[in-house]
Design brief:
Elements lengths: L1 E6 L3 E7 L9 E4 L4 H15 L6 E6 L2 E3 L4 E4 L11 H9 L3 E5 H12 L7 E7 L3 E7 L2 E2 L12 E3 L12 E2 H5 L1 H8 L9 H22 L3 E5 L8 H11 L8 E4 L6 H14 L1
Parallel strand pairs: 1-4, 4-7, 8-13, 13-14
Antiparallel strand pairs: 1-2, 2-3, 5-6, 8-9, 9-10, 11-12
Helix pairs in contact: 3-8, 6-7
């Protein structure tokens, strides 16, 4: 029995895989900002979900990881979790070998194996969610890195002219991340009905994609996350094509296929790699 845990800034999702090839509908519950409270919730939900032994546990976490310490070193959406012994505590709860990955990297791996990137060798995955994350996947593996991939932290607007109400200098996450959009408009992003707002956010996202193309040279860019329900992907393609004049042809830009359970598909890919 393999346990998959996807910890997000808003919700935590749990599921299991008995055969290493599939998983049932996940259990979903709010992620507590307080680490100790979140750990208690996790302990309760895991033991309600699984009564037997756990073979392995794969965890997705939002932010920059400290692999040696088994913790988060940077996490804008879970600041109280920073430097906490997350993996040690989860090992104690599950009594199983535990590996952990950036949640966006897991999601990107899932899309490269089973989703919109499966027919490509070099995949860039971006999730436009509470924040903005992403990863580079090469030949069906998470590309090598020193600290991790954080495309949401790239500076898009140093002057502050694009968005006077944003943090300066403005990163891609400041401009298009759901939490910051909600703060600017004082409502949930799904309640914004002005199409001009979404077209502008599509333009700002294309600035980030232009940088991603120049730095990562992908064959395809896969866009996921709940904000992509309203950001018009056709506009993103149009704006990116106008910006990225330094390449003969822009990469394919596609919507994620497995949006809801993206990190769990990445966990299945890891199991497949391990087993083979």
């Amino acid at each position: 029995m393999h346990l998959f845990i996807d910890i997000g800034g808003t919700n935590t999702r749990l599921t299991v895989s008995e055969d290493g090839k599939s998983f049932p509908e996940p259990v979903i519950f709010p992620t507590e900002q307080n680490f100790e409270a979140a750990l208690q919730d996790l302990d309760k939900e895991i033991h309600q979900l699984i009564s037997g032994s756990i073979t392995s546990t794969i965890v997705g976490l939002p932010g920059v990881l400290d692999q040696a310490a088994g913790s988060l070193s940077i996490s804008p959406n879970l600041p109280q979790w920073i430097d906490q012994p997350i993996i040690q505590k989860i090992k104690e709860v599950t009594d199983s070998p535990t590996s952990f990955f950036n949640d966006s990297a897991l999601a990107g791996l899932g899309e490269a194996w089973f989703g919109a990137g499966k027919d490509y060798s070099i995949v860039t995955y971006l999730t436009i969610s509470t924040g903005v994350g992403g990863a580079r996947i090469v030949n069906k593996q998470i590309d090598e890195m020193t600290y991790g991939f954080e495309p949401g932290f790239q500076i898009i607007d140093a002057s502050g002219k694009l968005c006077p109400d944003c943090h300066h200098p403005s990163s891609l996450e400041d401009l298009v991340g759901g939490a910051n959009v909600a703060k600017r408009f004082k409502c949930h992003p799904k309640d914004i009905k002005d199409q001009q707002v979404w077209d502008t956010i599509a333009l700002w996202l294309s600035y980030g994609l232009n940088n991603v193309i120049s730095l990562w040279s992908p064959e395809v860019i896969v866009l996921g996350g709940p904000m992509m329900r309203d950001i018009p992907i056709d506009k993103v393609r149009e704006y990116t094509e106008k910006l990225a004049v330094f390449v003969p042809q822009i990469p394919d830009i596609k919507a994620a296929k497995h949006e809801k359970d993206k990190a769990f598909y990445g966990a299945l890919a890891l199991l497949d790699t391990t087993n083979n």
